[in-house]
Amino acid sequence: xxxxxxxxxxxxxxxxxxxxxxxxxxxxxxxxxxxxxxxxxxxxxxxxxxxxxxxxxxxxxxxxxxxxxxxxxxxxxxxxxxxxxxxxxxxxxxxxxxxxxxxxxxxxxxxxx
Length: 113
Hints:
Distance between the termini: 16 Å
Structural class: alpha+beta
Radius of gyration: 17 Å
Shape: elongated
Strand order of the largest sheet: 1-2-3-4
């Protein structure tokens, strides 16, 4: 889920597959922040971390707040479990190296389709 994109903001902010908030300011400031750290985030910390203006940090805090509302602690755990099972399947001697269909099946399962 995307909260902001660079086309209409100085931020690119989204809820990533690892259950973290990706809060990117520019290509030198691309950080993934976990739930506990988001709870401690302030405008002052954002200004310090990203070297942005206070106004830009206030905008970023809106995305932090949205992430905190949307957060589901199972997201990162489920992703890690699915990825681990998929990699184990790939490493299984009796399994042919993954095909495009396998990758599509994995992606559909991951996205609930």
